[in-house]
Write a structure and sequence with these properties.
single chain, 222 residues, alpha+beta, 2 domains, 5 strands
Length: 222
Amino acid sequence: MKELQLIYRKRKQQLLPLIFGFASVFILFRIVLPQWTDIQNALQLITTKNSTIQAKEASVLLLNSLPEEGVASDFDLITTALPLQKDIILIFEELNNAASETDVDLGGFSVKVGGIYSAASGQQKKEKAVTGVPYLSILVSVSGENVNVRLFAKKLYQSMPLVEIESLDVGRNDARYEVKFYYKPVSIRPEKADTVALEPLTNSENDMLKTLRSWQSSPVLQ
């Protein structure tokens, strides 16, 4: 004990700065920095909450300015053009309507369903899609007058759900089409959906809606 006291007395001037130095480092890393981090997190949270409130207020103002009937009508139009799921019944009805309006006989159709399992690998095949929009490949056969068979293709092009005629084989009184019927499942909300306000439709988007409405009511092309 006496030896320790002697060492302390001899090294006192060196030990005290070291003790204060260690104490300062301890206070800095264990008390000051954690509190500073908490302050920064709190400020960030406040900023995010303010952005969320502003975005929601702007979205509410926009929605209140839109007629409810118009929003419902646009939603029905869009979900008809791009169904939320693989709607075989809707596709069958559209094929029947197109055949009836163009006076051709619908011979039938076969569906190439995407997302099936491969027997060899046991892995699910990646669903067919174009620019992120999945589709069903359907083979359609019709019969009738040659001019009506061609009108059927034009009518089908303007059908809803949206389609793309990938290939066709036209005979004298019949035809076979390979058609893509598109659909669009509900997307996951964007990461910043809470802090980004809704925006009104652009002129281009409004023009697309007008085109879709014209397709709903347009007569058969001649």
